[in-house]
Amino acid sequence: MNKAVINKNRVYQLIALVIPLAFFVLLEGGLRFFDYGRELPLFIDYPKAENSTVPEYLLPRPDVVKRYFPQGSAAPSVTIETNFFLKHKPEDALRIVVQGGSTAAGFPFGYGASIAGMLDYRLKQSFPNRTVEVINTALAAVNSYTVLDFVDEIIEQQPDAVLIYAGHNEYLGILGVGSAYTAANSPAATLLYLKLKDSRIFQLLQNLYWQLTKANVPKNAGKSRTFMSKVAKHKNIPYGSELYQAGLKQFENNIARVIAKYQAAGIPVFISTIASNLADQPPFSSSDTSTVDKPNAGQSNQLSADVYYKQGQVLLAQGRYQAAKQSFIEARDYDLLRFRAPSAINDIIVELSKKESVYFVDANKALMNAAEHGIIGKSLMLEHLHPTIKGYFVIADSFYQVLAQSKVFGKFPRTISTIAAEKDKPVFDAEVYWGKAKIAGLMADYPFTKTPQTVQLPLVKTPSDRLGLSAYKSQIGWLTIATENLNYAKKNDIPLYLKSAKLLADAMPFDAAHNYRAGTVLIKYNQSVQAPRYLKRAIEIDSQNVNYQLALSHAYLEQGKFSQALPWLESALVIDPENATANDVLTKVKAHLVKGIK
């Protein structure tokens, strides 16, 4: 065959390859041009009014979970609670991102009880002169696939550290190995799905498939109240079984990929062990007999989860606490319905934490230390794994202590003690009732009951409870709760007044009035070291307000920082040259500076 014929054949082969490629490129471009499909980024812009001087803010997209479901399908109603951070990271910023599932997100209490919320409130006090942003990207029902899926978008936001509390949803969470919400039947296929999900061609095929198959969905499907009642495709996953091992491997491989990505970006990772209710949560599902078939050759027969649990109760009553704890752990590990992570997940976390630039947080141990007899129960857990407010504080405190010890951010200028932080948690009493009401709704359905039951809400005893009940009924939201607490506390409870003012300002960093009030209240009640954060925000929003400038100079003067107060007094006089207060104080400040008092 001559050379010309060979070249011609190569041209034909090239054309044969290019034609289908060109077709798909044009199809993808055409679908995007005609705005078919959707893109659901993790972070979205907070819209601001035209000509506004307010800095630009981002927030995690509340309904980002929809990215894992066909357009128009019934995605679970789980959201990321609103929390804002600056679009352009300031030079002095300390930016931390939290990843994980419902516990990391603070369910059922919300952002204030979450790891992010508690740390944000406490770290702002530890670093009064830095911009502190602790961003929550955790949400209920997701597992390590979502943690992995978010990583690249989180890296774009230049965090100084990432905190991970995850592992309970590897079996029955979205994309879990035993979940009804599974995208594919293998890890490789699921990872490919995560890569392709933003492609418009993929979305077209996905939507067509969903339209064709939804006709086969039973009419009553999806009408149950809770996500837990719909998610469990595999209700029995025996200890050591193939599906059990697949869940462990899924978690280990995905979190290892997560860590590798952060390592490559130079971002330290703080990863914690996870905890669940041992003493007061019977197994959801157990073998009918006292023994079960051995899962692997060479292993002896194993007691059923129910037998282990009853054994734990007997040992607890006898005061044999260590033995009781071990029996309760076995009961959880052999529970066939895997809404709680087995001990092996924590073993994996311990091993992964040995990697470079990874810091180990042992929240499970901290909770055990805080629990009665060292056995986690109802004082720290609301049901199977969501903590009480006390439990949430213990988890957040575990992260805080390791963050401080790590020196990743240098030495903390101010260390807020555990005792002080626990007295001033960023949660309102109304939120506590609201959360408990949500748990009552959760526990009135599967897997806590065989059939849906009437929800028995907690008794309403206080005005805060009434606010919480209104929130549960969707009659009011968090802002109303915070405002009601602010108004009540102004004359009756100064610590609550301070907390309310700060939380409202942090919840709405783009609102000058809220931030000015927080700053002036902090000055009034001798906490001027925290005031500049809020007053600077107010000035960024309205730089021509003389009162904001004067208040900031006042905050610095209260701290004895005359040189830092000076430029704000001068700035106030540029706006209002005849301002008597500014002129009077400026004269005194200059006199102090001349004498060398700074």
Strand and helix map with partners:
Elements: H1 3-33, E1 43-45, E2 57-60, E3 85-86, E4 94-100, H2 102-105, H3 115-126, E5 132-136, H4 144-156, E6 161-165, H5 187-196, H6 200-213, H7 228-231, H8 242-264, E7 269-272, E8 291-292, E9 302-303, H9 305-317, H10 321-333, H11 343-352, E10 358-361, H12 363-370, H13 389-406, H14 418-423, H15 429-442, H16 463-472, H17 478-492, H18 494-507, H19 512-524, H20 531-541, H21 546-558, H22 562-575, H23 580-594
Parallel strand pairs: 4-5, 4-6, 6-7, 7-10
Antiparallel strand pairs: 1-2, 2-3, 8-9
Helix pairs in contact: 3-13, 4-8, 8-11, 9-10, 12-13, 15-16, 17-18, 18-19, 19-20, 19-21, 20-21, 21-22, 22-23
Question: Could you please describe the fold and organization of this structure?
Answer:
With 598 residues, the protein is α/β, with parallel strands linked by helices. 50% of the residues lie in helices and 6% in strands. The chain has 23 helices and 10 strands. A 5-stranded parallel sheet has the order 5-4-6-7-10, with helices on both faces. A 3-stranded antiparallel sheet has the order 1-2-3, with no helix packed on it. Helix 9 packs antiparallel against helix 10 and helix 18 (494-507) packs antiparallel against helix 19. It is globular and about 85 Å long. The model is unreliable at 215-222 and 291-300 (pLDDT under 50).
What labels would you give this structure?
three-stranded antiparallel β-sheet; alpha/beta; 598 residues; five-stranded parallel β-sheet; 23 helices; Rossmann fold; 4 domains; globular
